[in-house]
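# nightly structure sweep
# worker-07 picked up a monomer target from the shared queue
# config: single-sequence mode, recycle default, output format = structure tokens
# input follows
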Amino acid sequence: MQKILSLSLILWLCLTAHSALAQSNILTGIINDSASGKPLAGVSLFLNGTSKGTVTRSDGKFELAIPPGRYELIASAIGYGTWLREINSRSLPSSLKIVLHTKADELASVTIEPYLKDGWKKYGKTFWQYFIGTTENASACTIKNKDALRFHFYLKSNQLSVTAIEPLLIENKALGYELEYRLERFVCDYASQIVSYYGYPLFRDMPTDDPEKKKKWENNRQLAYMGSMMHFMRSVYNNRAREEGFLVKYKTPVPNIEKQRVKGLYQPNVTKTDSIPIDTLRHYWQVLREPDYFMTPATDPGGLMTTTADQTHVMFFYDDCTVIYGNPRRGIAYAESAIRLMNQRPIAIDENGSYYPQNEVLNLQSWGITQNISNLLPRDYDINSSIP
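# output follows
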């Protein structure tokens, strides 16, 4: 009898601990209007780039489950400016109070620029190519509200800028997603041939009762995931890049050992040279003109990441990091991609495959073509799970 009670107690403690853990990943709060202070109902609240979202109740309150990792929490409502805050599942606030400001407040200090009335006709193909993409999946995508786009061309800088007056409603029939994409910036620099954009997407599964369609979507999602930036970043975070099939090549600094040795023996204008042969002095002078470090090719994925004292995973490399991936078993041909740190500063990477700041990373070669909306997956995507 005592043994049964002990087992029951252990089971109860396990269930309680699991319940507490689950509760710790539930973010709660309230959203109010900045002017009146009244709670706002129907506000969209979601984790940027995921399928996790909710809307506030009539009393302005909300609850949102937060999966493991770091995310940008977005609050958005018609007539209000977008609210953003970075959160981490490991350190969620006990309760969050959000205040939204009307767009009229924001527009008071903003100059409204005229846009091209025939912008889509002139630049729609360019926008589609870089934003939606040119892969096979792109042909299955539709922007339902193209009239929300505003095209601006700046002759002096030779740049095309595109904004949107409301969230873009994008349907991706290849992957089975409906997206609400709050486009914040799209710039095509014709001079440098660099295209950059960012925004806040929210994913929803397209509804269907057709099992064959679900199976096709899941297969396409798996193919889009394998070899993607998300796949690569997750594998680096978990120290499994090589096991996951990635080959990398980058440059890493190696100390100039000979220069360190010479510095210990000779200091110009300080060390007496009477007893040093002239050939040795020439060698010293030559070595001291060399850099302190030599840039040497490296292929170990583990060398890309370090962990700081606060357990943040940081990625850094010099110049470009070349990444090769292929999976013949799944019919994925080997392709070469590359990423570049725009300002040669470290980026933080997360277990869900996200990285910060995102504008520090430039995708090149294969990723420059494939990492767009037509192949975009939510950050909470799990290749081991199936479509519900």
